[in-house]
Amino acid sequence: MLEISPEIPTIFPFIKIKNLIDLTSRLKQWPNDNTKQAISLVNISPEDFCKPNQAAQLSRKANDELAEIVFDHSDKFEAGVGVLPMNNIDEAIKIVDEIVQNPHLIGAQIFTRHLGKSIADPEFRPVLAKAAEANLPLWLHPVFDQRKPDNNLVFSWEYELSQAMLQLVESKIFEDYPNLKILVHHAGAMVPFFAERINHILPNEEAKCFKNFYVDTAILGNTPALQLAIDYYGLDHVLFGTDAPFAVPPSGANAEVSGAINNLAISKQDKQKIFSENFVNFLKT
After folding, report:
1. What does the domain layout of the chain look like in residue ranges?
2. Strands (E), 124-173
3. Running along the chain, 285 residues long, what does each successive block of 10 average in pLDDT?
4. 89-108 burial string, b = 16+ CB within 10 Å, else e?
5. Topology, domain 1-111
6. What is the pTM of this model?
7. How far, in Å, CA of 252 to CA of 69, rounded?
8. In degrees, to the nearest 5, what angle opens at C-alpha 106 toward C-alphas 105 and 108?
9. Which of 31, 118, 162, 174 can bridge 254 by disulfide, Cβ–Cβ 3.0-4.6 Å?
């Protein structure tokens, strides 16, 4: 990617985070809490820099590299979450099958926007349909809306996630593919807080569809907010996630997120569901 676009570190400064690009450093500073990580790629998509055929080629190389890291360090990494070339729908559909067949990959990452369009755009629907058919979970990560002048990491990504969820629901994707599994970053963003607005403004069937989403716990702690997410999505739809190695240097917010879960007023068994069992069931069901 750097050969194609040497300016990437200037556009995306997080690329300079050592534990994101230096595996040796990351392994040396592994959190001492017995966690294993499911790893994905940062939101630099080949489709934004390459023509369709090259984007597909780079996506396959990236997926192979993730699988190799998982295989070589299985004591640390549970599995990888692959990338799809969303400017090459035919190849993206084929890559879904390739991910399913790879024992070291468990899902694919999608973004709130691809090529400036909502993930709910009809152009991308065949990929979502294929993921549903193949029972391949999708990880939904936010990106900025480049039309806006005030993008920021504090609030913008939460809006983008919430808006993408609304657009997916309104596209009737869950009505057509009720078994589609989408894991939303940042505990489902704004949706739990505005649950009653959803219930009163949207048609009943659409409001219900928001409960189809799964969410992670990557909000840097905040026990009351996690409880709100659990109350809204249901305990079985909340999966342990930390966004490591981002947010808290050098290795991520494992301690902060784990502490927030442990402070929840729920049983030890329910906490274990969040920490591990829901993840296993998410992949199996």
Report:
1. 1-111
2. 138-141
3. 90 86 93 89 89 97 97 96 98 98 98 96 98 98 94 95 98 97 98 98 98 97 98 98 91 95 98 97 89
4. bebbbbbbeebbebebbbbb
5. TIM Barrel (3.20.20)
6. 0.96
7. 19
8. 90
9. 31
